[in-house]
Every structure is written in structure tokens, then in C-alpha cells.
Amino acid sequence: MTELIFLDVDGCLTDGKIIYTSNGEFIKEFDVKDGAAIEAWLKLGKKIAIITGRNCPCVEKRAKDLKIEILYQGIKDKLACAKEILQKLNLDFSQCAAIGDYFNDKALLESVGLSFKPK
Questions:
Q1: The model scores a pTM over 0.90
Q2: 79 burial level (CB within 10 Å; 0-12, 13-18, 19+)
Q3: Which CATH number does the domain housing residue 92 bear?
Q4: C-alpha dihedral over 48, 52, 57, 59, to 10 degrees?
Q5: 45 burial class (0-12, 13-18, 19+ CB within 10 angstroms)?
Q6: How confident is the model at residue 119 (pLDDT cuts 50, 70, 90)?
Q7: Cβ atoms 116, 97 nearer than 8 A
Q8: Which domain holds residue 74?
Q9: Which has the closest alpha carbon to 6: 82, 80, 111?
Q10: Which residue, 55, 43, 36, 49, is CA-closest to 88?
Q11: What Rg value do the Cα atoms of the chain yield, rounded?
Q12: Tens digit of pLDDT for each residue in 43-60?
């Protein structure tokens, strides 16, 4: 049974676009439907872990708003990060799903029990 979902951000929780402000910060747009699904999953007592290659304060804010406790930003090796998370939670990859869309998600997507790649 799936206990944990690993999520990428760009292209999975967003449309993959990055908007830069005039002072060099960037903005991401999140969908409320994704948020509702995440909240429903967490209410079941399940876990969400966001592992993303970028660092963005807006991702930290979104995770906090949704009560996602596991957030890793600026990660190059997502599989190694996932292994650390699973060790802390005493879970294995067969109990996990992952949603990712880019080459740096490939190893993680191939390691979990259930994987999804948005178009």
C-alpha cells in the first residue's frame, strides 16, 4: 500500500513556467486542485515529500500552507535524498509513489512502486 508520495515541483505542481520579477525573484503558480488532493491525502494519515532541484521561498510557503512537513530544495540527487527520507520514516520504495517530469526524476521514478509523469 502506498504510504508516501514524492513530488517534484516544476512541471508537476506547476505548469513548469517561471516568471521573473523586476528585482530578479521568481514566481510560480500553483493549482488549488492539487492542493485539495494533497490535503485529502494527508488527512488519510499518509505522507508527502517534496524534492525539487530549485530553491524558492514560494515552494516553502506552499508546503507550509498545505502542512507538508517533508521539503527538500536544491537537490541534485533526488534518489539519494529519497533514500534518506525512507530511512527516517522506516519505509521502503515499494510503499511509495512519485510524480516527476524531468531527467533528474528518472531514477526516483524507476525506484518506487508507482510512478507518474505529467504531460
A1: yes
A2: buried
A3: 3.40.50.1000
A4: -40
A5: exposed
A6: confident
A7: yes
A8: 4-116
A9: 82
A10: 49
A11: 14
A12: 999 999 999 999 999 999
